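Objective 1b of the project was to move from sequence-level analysis to a structural picture of ligand recognition. The entry below was assembled by the postdoctoral researcher (A.K.) and checked by the PI before modelling. It contains the amino acid sequence of the target and the SMILES of the bound compound, coenzyme A.
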Amino acid sequence: MIRIRSELPEDVEAIYSLNQEAFEGTAEANLVNNLRTSNAMTLSLVAIKNNEIVGHIAFSPVTIEYDRATVNAVGLAPMAVSPEFQRSGIGSQLVEEGLNRIRTAGHDLVVVLGHPEYYPRFGFVPAKKYGIRWEHDVPEEAFMIKELREGALKEVRGTVKYRPEFNEV
Ligand SMILES: CC(C)(COP(=O)(O)OP(=O)(O)OC[C@H]1O[C@@H](n2cnc3c(N)ncnc32)[C@H](O)[C@@H]1OP(=O)(O)O)[C@@H](O)C(=O)NCCC(=O)NCCS
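Corresponding predicted holo structure:
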């Protein structure tokens, strides 16, 4: 039985350890701390199993820029599930709950850089299809976007920029 809830102040250490373990390094764990310090997490959810944090997902603000127009959107990153509990649906629950909450909060678009076999199941499509690219060069199928309001993708194109904290990863 998994419970998903927003992070609480007392979760900070467990979230750090979880990211460190899942990513086998401290870069993503530090990124989460830096986003939190900058008050730049749109949403931070944890997955709880037997009173322990076994999953975490963060969303932060991004911009999509074209000429002088800027559209605000949200980026999904990072996401981590404890290696012991991977491939049992916890990551999917975090994504679904995160997307629902982001949509309810009024956001229209969400982007993700990640496994191209994983995110399409939640409705993400390659961003390039819509004339949207990440500011850095990545394999085009790895940068994906999803609209949370019908028609939102028709209204935008351009270059996606994440928060500066991501430049340190
Ligand atoms: C990616 C991750 C968050 C998925 O969480 P999860 O709880 O295992 O995901 P779910 O159980 O909901 O879904 C499992 C599916 O994820 C996909 N998946 C998981 N890890 C994957 C990987 N390293 N590469 C590609 N696909 C992967 C598989 O398609 C798997 O489906 P299958 O079991 O049918 O083969 C988790 O594996 C993780 O923490 N990995 C290390 C950190 C990481 O890479 N984070 C993502 C950064 S964008």
